[in-house]
Write a structure and sequence with these properties.
The complex is a heterodimer of chains A (572) and B (122).
Chain A (H helix, E strand, L loop, with lengths): L1 H33 L1 H12 E6 L6 E2 L8 E10 L6 H14 L4 H8 L6 E4 L4 H10 L4 E10 L7 H4 L11 H5 L1 H4 L4 E7 L5 E9 L6 E4 L3 H17 L4 E7 L6 E7 L12 H4 L2 H4 L9 H10 L8 E3 L4 E4 L2 E4 L6 E3 H6 L3 H11 L1 H10 L42 H12 L3 E3 L4 E5 L5 E4 L4 E4 L3 H16 L14 E10 L5 E14 L6 E8 L7 H4 L1 H31 L1
Parallel strand pairs in A: 2-8
Antiparallel strand pairs in A: 1-6, 3-4, 3-5, 6-7, 8-16, 9-10, 9-21, 11-14, 12-13, 15-18, 16-17, 19-20, 20-21
Chain B lengths: L1 H57 L2 H8 L15 E5 L2 E5 H4 L4 H6 L13
Antiparallel strand pairs in B: 1-2
Classes of the chains: A alpha+beta (572), B mainly alpha (122).
């Protein structure tokens, strides 16, 4: 009886353990087969941390490989509201406004969110980071980001543009070539320790592809010279706006391009559209007398006039249809050369009447007006040129002297480059090369000949006439000591909203190249609404003179230093 | 015999397990130490970027021009105004000739802004 009782008890214990074992096995099987995905997901979340790896944004260099943009480290502050105690939240709300430029309501709103991650301040300074760290509040953390910075502040601001908070291009080349500059982000799955801190052990990793570097044709030194002189004129004459373009006439490389008003690239958050607009390629204006180079070139190319052919300039008053043309001072008989040198509207109109509207229009288009030149910058406009069938009876007295047409500063510099380059129109460009981080060239821009506009002989004859315009004509203030320059002044009346020409709003301009015998640079200067002086020969010509003098000296020195360097290399 | 075999197997498995655990802890230790070193490296890299930016900003023409052109005319030097350094066997030497190549016209019409001190050889 006793044995039987003992045995029964042992069997009961055995059965209990067996049942427990079966239960455990069943539970394990259930976990393994039905719950494994869910549970391994939780485990993965606990052990692994998915991190997006930010690529380094490409750098923009000038033609001498001087960086125009740099990526600076900038810590960003985040909070984990779900893990922060209420007392700590109050401390954050009280302390952070004194350190960072944020208000208490903003912080209260952010910290009230039921989230594990909210940004509190992006891209703060290292000093601000140190001050926040001193607070030693659990639930605040920093992520390392990079901030786009511009060491040359306002230099070439409208060309370079800027990138926003997420390192995405918003203006200029930063926007235009964003796909090359930004690269591609990578990702990695890192392990986390028991305290949920990231360990530098990764399970999977895809490396980020850094952005490509851009090399511009812009020369930082020439850009500075151009901006310095443009700024002087802009301030002296209280102008509404101003533009300057310096171009290599033989290749179409833009060496400098500046506009006023401008802005500091490091403080782009409060700029207006007026400051960011690249006026040299986006703004249309009536060019005035600088446009006479087209009429003069057409007349010489078509062999309709010679330099010494005489034109009667009607003593300053000449009627075309129902409109009376005037010269800025009365002239009698002038040779064709003098017509251009003295910028006679009546003489130029008479030359145009010899040519006829169709020939004038043909050369206007050949010089690149009325169509985009294809510069590699965003926002280029084509200008405005009417076909001869839409011309009025007065148009023959307006178009040849730069009225009833709309052009850009870029088109003007390309047109003067045609004469400096023996009659060939080159496509202007700003982007010289795109390189990867190893320095391998991905894309290179070569000079492109758009078309032959005039013959070499006509170009050389025009050079002589334009040299005369600077030596003895309206452009005397553009004379450069040490070498000769060729150019043409322009003073255009602006249109009032009622369609009439204004008597107190002008665009003063100058186009030219230097040295005249072997041109290194072609320059256009245009100043919008200068006061009190408004003549191109007074306002814009001195800018040309100062820029040409410094730039030619600089280019010649650079050339001779490069030659010396090559000679030394060969000697070694 | 069987017990001996069993015990030696147990020892082997234990040793391998310990080795595995040691290896894992060593990986974590190295990860922590590498993380500390990487933080230092990153800090140095960041300081390098900031210094580079400061150098670029300070030697920028905008900065130099801004401080110089207020007091005097800041213009590009002519070729004859440049001092040239030529590499030679003795190292880099200064070529006197290049600096003094002032043209006759520049000498006649040039206005010297300040007196030039000349050294007298004993």
């Amino acid at each position: 009886m006793y044995i039987s009782n003992y045995r029964r008890k042992a069997e009961a214990v055995f059965l209990f353990f067996l049942a427990f074992l079966i239960f455990c096995i069943a539970r394990l099987l259930y976990i393994q087969f039905f719950n494994s995905t869910y549970l391994s997901g939780i485990a993965r979340k606990q052990h692994n941390l998915f991190v997006e790896l930010e690529p380094v944004r490409g750098v923009i260099y000038d033609c001498n490989l001087k960086p125009q943009t740099l990526n600076l480290p900038a810590p960003s502050l985040y909070a984990s509201p779900n893990t922060i105690k209420d007392s700590d939240k109050e401390r954050i709300i009280a302390a952070l406004p004194g350190i960072l430029n944020v208000d208490q309501d903003y912080l209260r709103g952010r910290l009230a969110r039921k989230k594990y991650f909210v940004w509190l301040a992006r891209k703060i300074t290292p000093q601000e980071e140190a001050a926040v760290k001193k607070l030693n509040i659990k639930g605040l953390g920093f992520l390392r980001e990079t901030k786009r910075s511009y060491p040359n502040t306002y230099l070439a601001s409208q060309i370079i543009g800027f990138a926003g908070l997420d390192n995405t291009g918003l203006e200029g080349i930063e926007l235009y070539l964003d796909k090359y500059l930004k690269g591609a982000p990578g990702w990695a799955i890192f392990l986390r320790d028991a305290r949920q801190k990231k360990l530098d052990i990764w399970e999977k990793m895809v490396l980020p592809r850094d952005g490509n570097d851009i090399v511009l044709t812009i020369d930082q030194v020439i850009q500075y010279i151009a901006e310095r002189e443009l700024d002087k004129a802009f301030k002296t004459y209280h102008a509404k706006g101003a533009s300057i373009v310096v171009m290599d006439p033989h290749t179409g490389k833009i060496l400098a391009l500046a506009n006023r008003p401008t802005y500091d690239l490091n403080e782009h958050s409060n700029v207006s559209k007026d400051q960011t607009r690249d006026r040299a390629i986006c703004d249309l204006f009536e060019p005035g007398s600088v446009f006479k180079i087209v009429t003069a070139s057409a007349a010489l190319e078509e062999k309709r006039v010679g330099e010494e052919d005489k034109f009667f300039c009607e003593n300053g008053s000449y009627r075309v249809a129902n409109h009376t043309l005037h010269d800025h001072k009365p002239h009698g008989w002038l040779t064709f050369r003098e017509v251009i040198e003295e910028s006679s509207n009546i003489g130029t109109t008479k030359v145009a009447q010899l040519l006829g509207p169709n020939t004038v229009y043909k050369y206007v288009r050949l010089f690149g007006f009325g169509s985009k030149l294809g510069i590699d910058l965003p926002g280029e406009i084509s200008g405005m040129i009417k076909e001869p069938r839409f011309w009025s009876k007065t148009s023959i007295g307006a178009v040849p002297i730069g009225q009833e047409v709309g052009v850009t500063a870029l088109q003007l510099v390309s047109a003067i480059s045609v004469i400096a380059n023996g009659g060939q129109l080159m496509r202007p460009f700003v982007i010289e090369e795109i390189r990867d981080k190893q320095g391998k060239v991905i894309k290179r821009t070569s000079p492109v000949l758009i078309r032959k506009v005039i013959s070499l002989e006509t170009a050389s004859r025009m050079t002589k006439i334009l040299t005369g315009a600077v030596e003895e004509g309206t452009g005397r203030m553009a004379q450069v000591p040490g070498f000769t320059a060729a150019g043409k002044t322009g003073t255009a009346q602006k249109l009032e909203p009622n369609g009439a020409y204004s008597h107190n709003k002008f665009v003063a301009s100058f186009i030219g190249f230097a040295p005249a015998e072997d041109p290194l640079v072609a320059i256009v200067v245009s100043v919008d609404e200068p006061h009190p002086y408004y003549f191109g020969g007074v306002v814009a010509a001195p800018v040309f003179k100062n820029v040409a003098a410094d730039v030619v000296r600089y280019l010649k020195t650079k050339q001779s230093l490069a030659e010396d360097l090559n000679a030394n290399r060969r000697a070694r | 015999m069987k017990l001996n075999k069993f015990l030696s197997m147990i020892v082997c498995v234990t040793l391998f397990s310990l080795l595995y655990v040691y290896q894992q802890t060593e990986i974590l230790r190295l990860a922590y130490s590498e993380q500390r070193q990487y933080a230092v490296f990153q800090k140095l890299l960041d300081r390098n970027s900031i210094l580079r930016y400061n150098i670029e900003k300070n030697c920028s023409l905008v900065n130099i021009g801004g401080s110089v052109s207020n007091s005097s005319d800041f213009q590009m030097p002519d070729k004859y105004q440049l001092a040239r350094l030529v590499p030679s066997k003795e190292g880099v030497t200064f070529t006197q000739g290049a600096a003094n190549k002032e043209t006759l016209l520049a000498r006649i019409f040039g206005i010297k802004r300040q007196a030039e001190a000349r050294t007298i050889n004993p």
